[in-house]
Amino acid sequence: MQQLKPVRVFLEVADRRSFAAAARKLQMSPASVTRIVASLEEELGQQLLVRTTRQVSLTSSGAAVAARYRPLIEEFDRVTEDIALRSRPDRGRLTINAPLSLGQRLLPALIGSFRLAYPNIRLEVRLTDTLVDILRDGSDLAIRVSGPPADKSTIWRKVREVPLYAVASPQLFERIPRPEAPDDLDRAHCLSYAEDAGPEIWRFRKGPLTRSIRAGLDVVSNNGDFLYGLAESGNGIAMLPCFMVSDGLKSGAVERVLPDWDLPSLWLTLFYPPYDELPPLVATFSDFFESYIRDARLFDVPA
Question: 0.70 exceeded by the pTM?
Answer without folding.
Answer: no
